[in-house]
Amino acid sequence: MLRRSVLLAFTLCAVVRGQQVGTVTAESHPALSVQECTSSGSCTTQQKSIVLDSNWRWLHDVDGYTNCYTGNTWDTSLCPDPTTCATNCALEGADYSGTYGITTSGDALTLKFVTQSQQKNIGSRVYLLDDDSTYKVFNLKNQEFTFDVDMSQLPCGINGALYFVEMDADGGLSRFSTNLAGAKYGTGYCDTQCPHDIKFINGEANVLDWTPSDTDSNAGTGRYGACCIEMDVWEANSMAAAYTPHTCSVSGQVRCEDAVECGDSPDHRYEGICDKDGCDFNSFRMGDKSFLGPGLTVDTSQTITVVTQFLTADNTTSGQLSEIRRLYVQNGQVIQNSKTNIAGLDPYDSITDQFCTDQKEVFGDTNSFSSLGGLQVMGESLDRGVVLVMSIWDDHTANMLWLDSNYPTDADPSQPGVARGNCSTSSGVPEDVESQSPNSQVVFSNIKYGPIGSTF
């Protein structure tokens, strides 16, 4: 998944990843309830909470109010090198609703796209906590994960995402001595894109070779990337949706050190330790252009219940992951996933290794998903445990066209795999969506997990 997050800086705040803890604003995690279900169909409510990713937090010197990072540049006096920066800088608690447009109510989480208070905040990313200092870790083999989503107010170019990544449960607190903040402050993010815009990786500032972005006044890239296996359960707006497993040759969160290991595009995209493309199932891209959207079979103008089942070969939690299946529930009706309708492809309606192999061949795509282990490796990650991420974001790299339009834009849209949604190829420009659709939001609610068939 391509991913970019932005917080527009003001006098005291900037987009950062810090590792120490400041004392200006107390951190108070918004409550969010989830339900664990059993094979008998009974579900028990669990009181959990969410935490804002440290990427959005104010990073300043530990003894004062001087920004360590402003706009898209570091203060070189405070951050001359990775370890000194970690020593000098602290991140603060968050005003979730006032500054970031993040609210919870019972089992519902609302993420607003643009929030204007003393400063302008764009997008957000949060994690589900098990307790105040530990992320909730899910083991999903032979289990299903279900949630409701209202994405009726998400236009082209915006992504309301729910997914899992193999982050450290404590945010890297125990592994890296310079990380004194941990999961309580949303540290330790990673995904299969091995993002270079992460400000702190392995407890050290990513200041080496830092290059400010040409298109984003609040972002840049450093030498290192933060890599780990990723399971995209839901990447969507009102016009398109996809679910996508991504594999890596490593387990847990790993810092990649150079362009080849990180798989930096375009020269080394398929040489890195992680599978950036993944094996996606997007109904529109798979040939059913009337399945999901406003007023369609899965009607995105209304709340949708999304069910994802992680099936194993022997129907046990210890078996090998063999299939990832999708169901929808809306207006009391269970809706089976769409089937592929592409010449040369069997009518698949779920993700299997064979589906991935056949899809890549027909689309002419590189099958890095299989070369890095396919569903077996994805299942091993689910065994080790993954952390739940929910976000809303726009895309400074590809305008979200890979999700909801024709992509690549210079390819013939009649060719298999190019058309992914009805959005225009001129849509999704961040400057446009931020000015024209600032009131966009996504609501995730009614999260449930348990054995196959227990959550809906």
UniProtKB/TrEMBL annotation:
Bilayer-spanning residue ranges: none
Cited InterPro entries: ConA-like_dom_sf, Glyco_hydro_7, Glyco_hydro_7_sf
Region (Disordered): 412-438
UniProt signal peptide: 1-18
EC number, as in UniProt: 3.2.1.-
Example of a GO MF term: cellulose 1,4-beta-cellobiosidase activity
Domain of life of the organism encoding this protein: Eukaryota
Alphabetical GO biological process terms: cellulose catabolic process
Reactions this protein catalyses: Hydrolysis of (1->4)-beta-D-glucosidic linkages in cellulose and cellotetraose, releasing cellobiose from the non-reducing ends of the chains
Keywords for the protein's UniProt record, in alphabetical order: Carbohydrate metabolism, Cellulose degradation, Glycosidase, Hydrolase, Polysaccharide degradation, Signal
Family, per entry: Belongs to the glycosyl hydrolase 7 (cellulase C) family.
Record's protein name: Glucanase
Source organism per UniProt: Sanghuangporus baumii
